[in-house]
Write a structure and sequence with these properties.
The chain is an alpha+beta fold. It has 6 helices and 5 strands; from the N terminus they run H-H-H-H-E-E-E-E-E-H-H.
Length: 191
Amino acid sequence: MDKLKQNIKATHAQLDADLEAGDPKAKAFAGMRGERNAARRSLGVGPLPQEHVAPESPTEIPTEPNLPLTQAEHDRLEKMSMLGRDVWFKNKGVAGKWLVGRVEDEVYVMVGDYKHLIQKIRFADGRSWDGSTFAYRTGYYTYQHGRKAIKWGQYTQFLTEKEYSTLLQRRREAKGGRYSEKAEAIALANR
């Protein structure tokens, strides 16, 4: 193990020397600093100095989560919808999927590079497990790393109380105020 650590330290020392000399291949490798810094920390060497990080190209797509979306990116994300489309669930433990129902309505709130939404789904015949006609599903659309593709997610949504309140208010407004916030929260919890 000590020999392996010595070899890794020697490789990193060579990379540092190549970076000092301005080697473009070394700069490209240094761009993968996350993995490299983790390796350096595990060896007790410390993270790669910031001046060794290759500068980003001005034509590169922004990938920082805190960078705001361009208007085109925002519009593309806002257009994502399942309205009128079927919802399928995967079978657990075996191949295949089954039809749950169809999205009849959805409301959303845009938060940064996420489109959080509530979908109202009409069950397909015989699919409801408790006799309900509709089910509600929360989820979100967001850009994949690099902002080239938009993906659906429904895992651990994270909204502030104000954002979630806005989303529930939009649900109430969409249905003429027929639903109470408590009833909607119960419906969401029981999905």
